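Lecture 7 notes: from sequence to structure.

We start with a single chain of 373 residues. Read the sequence below before looking at the structure.
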Amino acid sequence: MGVTTVTDVRPAPAGTDGGVLHTLFRTEQGGHEQVVLCQDRASGLKAVIAIHSTALGPALGGTRFHAYASEEEAVLDALNLSRGMSYKNALAGLDHGGGKAVIIGDPDLVKTEELLLAYGRFVASLGGRYVTACDVGTYVADMDVVARTNKWTTGRSPANGGAGDSSVLTAYGVFQGMRASAQHAWGDPTLRGRKVGIAGVGKVGHLLVEHLLQDGAEVVITDVRSDCVDRVRTAHPQVTAVADTEELIRTEGLDVYAPCALGGALSDESVPVLTATVVCGAANNQLAHPGVEKDLSDRGILYAPDYVVNAGGVIQVADELHGFDFDRCKTKAAKIFDTTLAIFARAKADGIPPAAAADRLAEQRMAEARRRA
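Now the structure, written as tokens:
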């Protein structure tokens, strides 16, 4: 695995990189092309940019801003997320490989204009191998700042030549994946009369609520942020809120569970007690570890692979590079319905879980691109 360490001109304190670099070299993450460790002391920036693959084109993926418990945890998240972006972009039919960046720190406490500008300079240093966008903890206004120091930033505001909030089409795509899941599970592509539990009603989750209510679903929500719950309940008093995710996944009569927060939602602890028949949500890396997809299948739970159904946002930001057209993007995002059904059909034909079928299809496209290169 190629590793590039980027810091400012002053030497780092002795021993500060050892643990992170050890993580990079010992972790088997599917052959990342490049990992950049970014540090700018003047602004306090500490970040990781991971490029998994450029087989299909420049790596594309968002910037996550999160208070990681350790640098190793941040590196591992960047590695996992960037690999997922390669697969997501491949199945979305985009001419992009997979990359991801994480900025270490609580965005409510340490995010500044100076820090975002410094981060943009690191993106610029890659010369277009990595194209960034929004993710958890970053917003359109942040990308406008990042774009001031590089030309490989998407997710900008319309006033600055961008497409605006990509969560609109992310939510729309998840809804299309959920419709496909309903078609496969119950023979009808609608959530009307179904009970859907959403864990996380932030940027994407609250928009998914809108789609589901319009489709006639009964919606139950939870979020660690009470203000997010209050926003949904104020707009839609018919929506039920529960205390936490543990209560949500045990809800009686739950048809669909939609993880829409951070990853690892499907684990050895959650899968055995999950009451839903279908799992389809916006969160990245929902499977806590390999093997969970088989546990879901063994329980008769249909899992719509996260990187397939949440691709609406990346479809939007990729289009921004060529002159954004919302209707064109929405048409592409609507095809997530067909892609999801095709994955379920492949899984059934091959006798494997849908997650494995999705991986095979994505790997096939990337391998074909490498052969043509």
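Residues 43 and 263 are 28 Å apart (CA to CA). Keep this in mind for problem set 3.
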